[in-house]
Batch of 2 targets.
Target 1
Amino acid sequence: MNRISIKNKGPLRGELHAPPDKSISHRAVILSCLAGGRSVIHNFLMAEDPLRTLDAFRRMGIDIQTGEQAGEIIIGGRGLWGLKAPDGAIDCGNSGTTMRLLSGVLAAQPFTSTLTGDASLTRRPMQRIITPLTEMGARITSEKGGYPPLKITGGGLRPIHYRSPVASAQVKSAVLLAGLFCDGVTTVSEPAKSRDHTERMLSACGVDIRISGNEVSVRGPAALRPLHMTVPGDLSSAAFFMVGALIVAGSEITVKNTGINPTRSGIIDILKMMGADIRLENEREVSGEPVADIRVKHSELSGAEIGGDLVVRAIDEFPVLCVAAAKARGRTVITGARELRVKESDRIASMAAELRKMGVAVEELEDGLIIEGREDLVSADIESYGDHRIAMSMIIAGLTADNETTVRDTECVNTSFPGFMEILQGLLPA
Ligand code: S3P
């Protein structure tokens, strides 16, 4: 098992490109495979999670080639009905997005398929997609309580209006993808607006999609035009360096070409609320997504109260936000974030346990955390729980500790961000 040792080496300085967006990379593959004709995707994230999605479609007969440029992929879409049954179970690895979005596609197929995953994915709740997809007419079996593996017998779907009890882009996307195959209008509404990449990309594919507040409808059966797009940098990956620069004195960095989609940009709002010096430069649109260069300078942060709609807009950034809170003056209270308990690890429990090892007073709430900031973190021997975002967050925390900190079990970083350590070293003094 890999481990990474880190210590306070001084300020983070310079420019970097965040890796390509993970959510958008998954969707680019899925929609291109369902489109009729050749799609070209630039800046695709070659990391374990989106490669699971890509591999699943290859196994269902879709031709996917890498292009000449790094991160370029070329997909020969065969239309909505062009998939063939895979020869055996599809392994989704650690990727919840692969399993949940693929379920939406498989629910419509005239064959039976099985989706499996690693130990972490096997503990993640799938009832949230089983319920609507079953209502649409798919037959899905799971382990007791709605856990993987899933066996999906698809076909003959009917459109529904699904009122999701959770704000989840994975649930919303699974239902919308299944809706593409239905005859009529499928609608999903959710309690708060989750990331809208699926909607933006379906619209780029020419699908009849309507959005009204937190409600989205697609009309099927849809004919998708191929995609020609460039995936923007991932704000969720940029967030680690942004927090690193904020908490290490003397830092100043620019993260180039990063997605700032308003359904994802809660991290920027929260950090600004805490007193961060963050500026957006060169704001523009790339392939239907808002993008900017993000300039971040070391700042004295203060604790904040974080809840409500901000939570869903920053859902993946809470581990690193906890690190910012640990270094802020005063108390940070996070509530309404129960979803953190069912991510790649229980991120409330993981962050509470690991920050305590570094001397931080943390109280665990059922749906959040209370963190008392402190000036100096104590070096420690840290667990990642096999969760990429816990590993990277705690490496960032280690940059401000009094001595060497070791983070164990760091291979998981490759699920979303191969090259994380190289980029970090490039920003630190030699
Ligand atoms: C994702 C949606 C979010 C997020 C995950 C990626 C997506 O999950 O946490 O990392 O790509 O749709 P939920 O839909 O479970 O909130």
Target 2
Amino acid sequence: MEAENEVKEQKEYIKKVKEKNKDLRPKYSILTMGCQLNENDSEKLCGMLEEMGYIRTDNPKEADINLFNTCCVRENAEEKLFGKLGELKKVKEQNGCIIAIGGCMMQEKHITKKIKESYPYTDIVFGTHTLYRFPEDLYKALKEKKKIEDVLDVDGKIYEDLPIKRESGIKASVTIMNGCNNFCTYCIVPYVRGRERSRMPKDIIQEVEELAKAGYKEITLLGQNVNSYLRVEKEKNIPFEEYEGVNSFATLLRAINKINGIERIRFVSPHPKDFTDDVIKAIAECNKICKLIHLPLQSGNTKVLKEMNRKYTKEQYLNLVEKMKNKIPNLTLSTDIIVGFPGETEEEFEDTLDVVRKVKFEQVYMFIYSRRVGTPADKIENQIPEEIKHKRFDRLKELVESQIEENNNKYVGTIQKVLVEGKSKNNEDMLTGRTDSNKVVIFEGNEDLINKLIEIKIVSQHMWYLKGKILKQ
Ligand code: 5AD
Ligand code: SF4
């Protein structure tokens, strides 16, 4: 069946569940683990649930549906899920709530097996390729009172036009592609999200235009490998329709930059090996593209990078950074780093510290290597002991934190454009927003500034946020 008709079919299931729920006002709770792609998937699940008549609650005990959208990139998410499932056993015995688990972890056979054996009271298990079918799974679980396992190993199609309930009215995420073809040796993502496939330019642009009309100011384009947008389609001669001249990531950025109402564009994550000159030029020339670029390093050592299958060397990474700094005024960088990859020696780890010292990242997301079943790195014999991994992590953290302080000081006295996001959570009298470089700024101001891009003078720095004063409105 065509994807379009499959979505239509699910809309019929949405109506059927809605009918069942008439006058009941049932509630749902959702727990999302993992990356922004998963958060965007959760927004789609929330959209479907709310169209079916469910109301969101933060209290799992009063929910008629307890939904988990899982991640499997690192081990700690598994422990978290099993802990929560254990806690829900009693709740389920008392109120008979539906327990549904979806997302990346459900694509792993050893996990679904464990759920069946140890948490048999789970009602619905669905994977990354069958998310769009959640209304049907739920309908069947409710009506037929049977357990549903709906996980596919074949790559899902691109499903357009699903309901969506976004978390914010100011910033929105737009998924531009699914899957990953890179097979970094530590990473489980290619196995659970399948091969790369891009959404059509027209669908993306129309979604962003609608978001602009609805008042959104900031768009984040999402994908496991955004800068290879449409690459597979071109390589394999899979037909795609150009729309407003879009036939690559660079042209997509340029087209979105032209959409009235949108004031900021971000994207995650690009891969350094695919960072072509046309993308660098587009970033430099498009005024709405934020100059904070996320450029995952993973390791600063060439041998480790080779074993990770990252396809660049330490020098190539540093050269790319140099080139970008020269071509993009006001560039700032953030990155991902893994410490304790199998076989990583003390000297090899020092190379990572060396790159961090040289590049001076705006933000570093640090991870301790976590063994993932089925990945090549899991089979390497020389795994690093936990204690050493933790020691290296702490050394990296210390370096990063010392750099943050130094970097924050550079902001004091400068004028920054800030997108105002709302009242500060810790102080109702203050507003909060973010700079182009994604730094949190707290300042005094009137509520009518929310969802506006304004100029703020930074007066002081406080490690995780900056304090500022309004300049002009
Ligand atoms: N262990 C630790 N970190 C990992 N990442 C991906 N796989 C693993 C793993 N097995 C990190 C990478 C990636 C980020 C999203 O998660 O740094 O960029
Ligand atoms: Fe994982 Fe590498 Fe693909 Fe990123 S690029 S999702 S780290 S395999």
